[in-house]
């Protein structure tokens, strides 16, 4: 299996896209550290890994808290070694019209979706530089390209993670570390569950493949970017959206 | 046990892929030894490991020559 002896850190692996990414990398033989925001969530991830025969475990992480990030990286290092695959997946939405958006709604989303990527990437780079191999994959969104009314905060972060990937890719390419983003379209998870049927129908009519995507359809692309099969791709954002947006 | 100076020079030579005799005290990593900015970051990482210490980013930025590295280690560790 291609991921044997690789240590992968996947943020937000308790549900949705992150859970599928963690399980997919684990099924390929990677040792996976999947994070949740609560101890109960982390335990559930550990139980899921055990059931699926995946090496690794669930750990607690709040990506907006620098101390929590530092603690996690320390624990991972001590228990498993330095991760050379980092999937920045944890993300939230707090939608509002800009005219009504509070500072809190703005900064919560910026901190969770964008500043976290700075902290985690910085924390993991040392190990990747030493290994002379690394993969950083940020989960962006189609909304970062297309824009979406009510999501100025979210769209800013999602465009931001692609710009981050392009810049960091230029910094660390000489060390055989690639940095990419995956931009999902509308995927069937808790995040899209909250949409009304009317919103869903409008969206579906704009998707040539005529359906929401599945978390596994994102996970497979992340797996590709984490593998050696993608060794010459860096600074790129791969769009996985059923044709909803074509760049 | 070799001196701090010798240990620093050995690491510089290894990290930057230059001969130990080229690693003169006054040599600048970037100008004389051909390091790029990422090389200097890695060099500091290697020094941190060799001397089992953490060099804060503000301090690390000031370590631009072999002598400055030796001085830093001497002042903070010896
Ligand atoms: N679903 C879509 O249609 C869609 C489309 C484009 C992009 N995306 C992006 O894909 C990623 C995953 O989305 P999803 O739909 O799978 O989301 P989800 O089902 O809502 O899951 C979000 C995950 O992020 C974690 N998380 C939230 N806040 C966190 C924090 N402060 N610190 C650490 N972890 C935190 C959650 O942990 P807990 O379970 O502990 O709360 C959970 O594991 C996000 O970046 C999202 O923006 C999703």
Describe the structure in your own words.
The complex is a heterodimer of chains A (247) and B (78). With 247 residues, chain A is α/β, with parallel strands linked by helices. Chain A is built from nine helices and seven strands. Chain A has a seven-stranded parallel β-sheet, with helices on both faces. In chain A, strand 4, helix 4 and strand 5 form a beta-alpha-beta unit. The longest helix of chain A has 29 residues. Chain B is mostly helical. In chain B, helix 1 runs antiparallel to helix 2 and helix 1 packs across helix 4. The mean pLDDT of chain B is 93. The longest helix of chain B has 14 residues. Chain B contains four helices and no strands. Chains A and B meet through helix 4 of A and helix 2 of B. The complex binds NADP nicotinamide-adenine-dinucleotide phosphate. NADP nicotinamide-adenine-dinucleotide phosphate binds next to helix 1 and helix 7 of chain A.
User: What is the helix/strand order of chain A?
Assistant: EHEHEHEHEHHEHHHE
Q: How many distinct helices of chain B?
A: 4
Major sheet of chain A: size, sense and barrel closure? 7 strands, parallel
How many strands appear in the DSSP assignment of chain A? 7
| Secondary structure tally, helices of chain A | 9
Global outline of chain A:
globular
Quick check: average pLDDT of chain B? 93
| Low-confidence region ranges of chain B | none
Q: What integer is the average pLDDT of chain A?
A: 97
In helices, the fraction of residues of chain B equals: 55-70%
What's the helical proportion of residues of chain A? 40-55%
Report on the biggest sheet of chain B.
none
């Amino acid at each position: 299996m291609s991921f044997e002896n690789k240590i992968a850190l996947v943020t937000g692996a308790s549900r949705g896209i992150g859970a599928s990414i963690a399980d997919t990398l684990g099924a390929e033989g990677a040792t996976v550290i999947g994070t949740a925001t609560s101890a109960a969530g982390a335990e559930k991830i550990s139980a899921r890994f055990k059931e699926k025969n995946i090496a690794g475990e669930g750990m607690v992480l709040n990506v907006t808290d620098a101390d929590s990030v530092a603690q996690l990286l320390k624990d991972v290092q001590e228990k498993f070694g330095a991760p050379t695959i980092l999937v920045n997946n944890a993300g939230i939405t707090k939608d509002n019209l800009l005219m009504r958006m509070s500072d809190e709604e703005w900064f919560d989303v910026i901190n969770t979706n964008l500043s976290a990527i700075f902290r985690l990437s910085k924390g993991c780079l040392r190990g990747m530089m030493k290994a002379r191999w690394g993969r950083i994959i940020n989960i962006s969104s189609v909304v970062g390209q297309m824009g979406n009314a009510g999501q100025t905060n979210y769209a800013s972060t999602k465009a931001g993670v692609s710009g981050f990937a392009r810049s960091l890719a230029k910094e660390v390419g000489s060390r055989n570390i690639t940095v990419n983003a995956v931009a999902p379209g509308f995927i069937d998870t808790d995040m899209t569950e909250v949409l009304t049927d009317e919103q869903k129908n409008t969206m579906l009519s704009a998707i040539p493949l005529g359906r929401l995507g599945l978390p596994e359809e994102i996970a497979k692309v992340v797996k590709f970017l984490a593998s050696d099969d993608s060794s010459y791709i860096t600074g790129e954002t791969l769009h996985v959206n059923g044709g909803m947006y074509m760049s | 046990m070799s001196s701090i100076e010798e240990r620093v020079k050995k690491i510089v030579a290894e990290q930057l892929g230059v001969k130990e005799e080229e690693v003169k005290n006054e040599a600048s990593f970037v100008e004389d030894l051909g390091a790029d900015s990422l090389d200097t970051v890695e060099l500091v990482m290697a020094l941190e490991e060799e001397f089992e210490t953490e060099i804060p980013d503000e301090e690390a930025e000031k370590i631009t020559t072999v002598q400055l590295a030796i001085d830093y280690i001497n002042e903070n560790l010896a």
